[in-house]
Design brief:
By secondary structure, the chain is α/β, with parallel strands linked by helices. The chain is built from 21 helices and 25 strands. The chain binds beta-D-glucopyranose.
Length: 736
Amino acid sequence: MVQFNQLLNNRFAIKIGSIAIFISFFIFLPDNIFGQGQSQVKGISRDMTLNDPKIEGIISKMTLEEKIDMLHGNGMFTSPGIERLGIPELKYTDGPLGIREEISKNSWNSLKLTNDSATFFPAGSALAATWNPEMAYLLGTGMGEEARSRGKDILLAPAVNITRIPTGGRTFEYLSEDPFLNSRLAVGYIKGVQGQGVAACVKHFALNNQETNRGSVNIIVDDRTMREIYLAPFEAAVKEANVYTVMAAYNKIDGSWCSENDNLLNQILKKEWGFKGLVMSDWGGTHSTVKAAMNGLDVEMGSTRNAFLGQPLLDSVKAGLVPIEIINDKVKRILRVRFAVEPITPAGVVSTPEHGKIAYKVASQSIVLLKNADNLLPVDLGKIKKIAVIGDNATHKQASGGFGAGVKTRYEITPLEGLKSEVGSRASIQFARGYKPAFIWSQQVRGRRSPNNKIDSTLLAEAVSLARNSDIAIIFAGTNRDFETEGSDRSDLKLPFGQDELIRAIASVNPRTIVVLVAGAPLDLNEALKSSSAMLMSWFNGSEGGNAIADVILGNVNPSGKLPFTFPVSLNDSPAYSLATFPGDNNANYKEGSLVGYRWFETKNIKPLFSFGFGLSYTQFSYSGIKTDKGKYKSNDTIQVSMELKNTGKREGDEVVQLYVHRTDSKVEWPAKELKSFSRVTLKPGETKKVTLSVPVSQLRYWDVKSNDWQLEDGEIQLMIGSSSSDIILTKNIEI
Ligand code: BGC
């Protein structure tokens, strides 16, 4: 009999341990946790196979019925253990923004508890804008600790799908348009979560890049693109972060649902990558019994009654259609996760001040300065005495809204609250709502939300009058969580709810107009840029979002976020729109191949509005002295590139140095630029630091469809260092 009680008695020890680990994050981070593709994971996550002998013993004592019972949910967010053998059920929780509130066992209805509020952590695109795997790690530790204290075993995060279309409804939950950036962040995040003794679940595997028709669309993609772009973050999650669980996506690939896709689940994930944990379906995303069971799905979630992997599977095994070895393998995988994650009863430590600090730290590194004409920012309270704060997003809470997982947050500081508390009595702050977010439901096409763009004239007049009588106007525009949502994509990138008109009107009466965008995805800022002097991109930035943006506006924090995706001038410039492959009907044909995001813009020489990796600062940096450790490299080498970065301005600041590669004499087709390394560096005014970036040569391989394997092409490679994908400052050629 398995002695879980003993483990439960150790709960106190586990808790103390986790607090100690948590404190140590602020002192030093474990070496090598964010390895750049080659480094081995240091034992933060446990080796899932350690208990295999014990697990074999348990399986040998189980009846077929007990085994089948473990392979599907027995509630919305639980899957069964084996009561007779004392093995507890697995408890799951969403999701990327924070630990979801408790819902009833068999429906999505809230249980309306009072002890399940959580920290609202910055959303995926905010985290990605930090370009900082340490922030992903910290955020992961906070999420992991909150999941643990609520007694959860599996956290349904991170969501790492590539931002293929700028209008994607879940862009805010996902990370970026680049597989390398996503991989680094996913690895940090998962290690943070699993270091707290909770299983992470990397999702949605794979190619769930649009919400439109997500439950039926078939993705057509060539193997090279699939490997290099779309599977890369998942591969890193498995191989480098030892992720315990994977969620299969809703869509089909090559005609086969992801939850029953032999190539994806059996061949690539389990055989080739050596994944030892469990594959679950997305909620309600299972479509068959024998196919799903044979092709790699281990646990069916979201279907509590009449599950495909319930009675029909039992019947199929009895009928000889599914061998018992297949069932045993699934049970083994589930038990590996069960043993890697000790079951605990909720300890009640939720949403601590330390987690608020993590949320603040991430938020403060994520904010992107897009424009700062005449150095209008930071706001100088020595000169500015009357501040007009305008726009619904100044007071709009973003922890929940729309469809899908949100957070019942313990608190959320809005931008207006953040500004008021930071400014105090140093200036007067008046607020006008300016616009009202509303939708035209009758015009909803294919589930896409249509914003009502007609501005309310009374709100507009109030805002204009306030701006006219103020020293400065700060407009909080953007989207909100009702507009950017799971289940639907946006029909365009336009600022919704009449905001362009509002910004124009405010700027015409007050030339000192700052626009702050609260959103999770690219926006069409052509109009807004014409009238505003300064612009900041804030995000769905968590419980502390309002404090972070106030600190950036007032200059207590120097903005250092970099865009995790391209903002096109026009939606039709972006690849899937240009090739008219979005949304597709039954099929979405990824004809652009690997030219996703900036890869497309750089290769086709299309100038975007804002490039991937772009972000200004209140200080300036100069780049010089690029050097490599060698001129010629072999396949097992790591290229070490160094350069000198100097802060030439008057404020301390962080810069994210980015390294892209370009093949100069290639026979194989490549995008013009590909991100291969980056580093966030803090510099005092006048300070110079040597920055070293490493690129394992193996990271320069391509997926060769003929040999069905990774291949390295010899030849010359240009290393390009810069401050965004389009702003390359230093180059050096090397040979492979
Ligand atoms: C989403 C998943 C989520 C699951 C459970 C699905 O609709 O796609 O990301 O984890 O629901 O809430």
